[in-house]
Design a protein that fits this description.
The protein is of the alpha+beta class. The chain has one domain: Jelly Rolls (Sandwich). It is 18% helix and 31% strand. It contains eight helices and 22 strands. It has a six-stranded antiparallel beta sheet. It has a six-stranded antiparallel beta sheet with strand order 2-3-10-5-8-12. The longest helix has 14 residues. The structure holds 2,5-dihydroxybenzoic acid. 2,5-dihydroxybenzoic acid binds next to strand 3 and strand 10.
Length: 351
């Protein structure tokens, strides 16, 4: 599969004739269609929260959450500008809800996650239940569920949205509609889903109906405590430190069908081994400082910063202080299609 050379005049003329019949020669494009290995256009990058925050807050003066429907600054991968993508398959943005505001109820076939970056006390309502959000919480909006966001606190709240927008667009399966009212009616008390499904118990007779986890807020304090308790054992991964994946407690699978989510602890002084996998990963630091090293580039990160490791590109993580980092990728989608691969650098890649 060599680089194609300029076609001869006879071939060019032939291509022109077949083109009229909507035909094209495979041999001119084969190497690009069936590459030896992924060559991503996505680039590694870090968004430092202290640089981004003033712009997010300024959006709060220019447009209301109601008018915008979702007042979000899209995090655009530098290699994919203008496409509303943070990785080739995922969308991410920073959403701002000011005190007293409501982002009106709607639903869509795209799955969404929220990861709370700043603030405490704003809520998301999903399918008749409200959850109050705090920094470090991971919240799910399953496909086709009504959801509205609001802020009854006295501080702005900013969270990162992660959606499978590019996947749904690729499959041409996007549907959306607005709820006739600003907020949906609530039918269950706050904390109901966590009590029912998130305590290692399930109501008798429960039948799994959806692909997403029925737990839709995974509170940070519980995740943090799990990491803290586990760190006393020696379960460190040379590349990821102590990394936990968020699961659907009903079946032990991923919390969302298309987006995999993780929280990892990198102990002070951690110097991770090189790693690459076919899924590009979006990180959001909660605590601590460190760096992402990709090739000859180094990206320093600290609390509230968002950074990305592109797919099939070696990277390593380092931490100067105990660090806790959330991340997400399209790994569940890749795994279901039998495509996901990783390479830990210590042995040749499969294949
Ligand atoms: O909160 O429903 O960042 O529909 C992009 C699309 C957030 C949301 C986004 C959305 C939402």
């Amino acid at each position: 599969m060599d680089t194609p050379s300029q076609p001869s005049p006879e071939r060019e003329a032939y291509y022109g004739r077949i083109s009229e019949e909507h035909l094209a020669p495979l041999w001119e494009v084969l190497a690009g269609l069936v590459p030896k290995e992924p060559a991503t256009k996505a680039r590694a990058h870090v968004w430092h929260y202290d640089k981004v925050r003033p712009h997010v807050m300024e959006a709060g003066e220019l447009i209301t959450a109601k008018e915008a429907e979702r007042r979000v600054l899209v995090l655009e991968n530098p290699g994919l500008r203008g496409q509303s993508r943070i990785t080739p398959t995922l969308y991410a943005g920073l959403q701002l809800i000011l005190p007293g505001e409501i982002a009106p109820s709607h639903r869509h076939t795209q799955s969404a996650l929220r990861f709370v970056i700043e603030g405490e006390g704003a809520y998301t309502a999903v399918d008749g239940e409200k959850t109050i959000m705090r920094e470090g919480d991971f919240v799910i909006t399953p496909p086709w569920t009504w959801h509205d966001h609001g802020n009854d606190s006295d501080r702005p709240m900013v969270w990162m949205d992660g959606l499978d927008v590019p996947i749904v667009a690729f499959l041409e399966t996007g549907f959306a509609e607005s709820y006739p009212e600003e907020s949906q009616p609530l039918s269950r008390p706050e904390g109901d889903a966590l009590a029912r499904y998130g305590m290692g118990l399930l109501p008798e007779g429960y039948e799994q109906r959806a692909l997403c986890s029925p737990v839709f807020n995974y509170p940070y304090d519980r995740t943090r405590e799990a990491l803290e308790t586990m760190r006393r054992q020696d379960e460190w991964d040379p590349c990821h430190g102590l990394r936990l994946r968020y699961v659907n407690p009903v079946d032990g699978g991923w919390a969302m069908p298309t987006i995999g989510t993780f929280m990892q602890l990198l102990p002070k002084g951690f110097a991770g081994a090189p790693y690459r996998a076919t899924d590009a990963t979006v990180f959001s630091a909660v605590e601590g400082r460190g760096r992402l090293v990709v090739g000859d580039e180094t990206f320093e990160w600290g609390p509230r910063d968002v950074f990305i490791a592109p797919g099939w590109t070696r990277y390593r993580l380092e931490a100067d202080e105990d660090a806790v980092v959330f991340s997400f990728s399209d790994r569940p989608a890749q795994e279901k299609l039998g495509l996901w691969r990783e390479d830990r650098g210590n042995r040749p890649a499969a294949g």
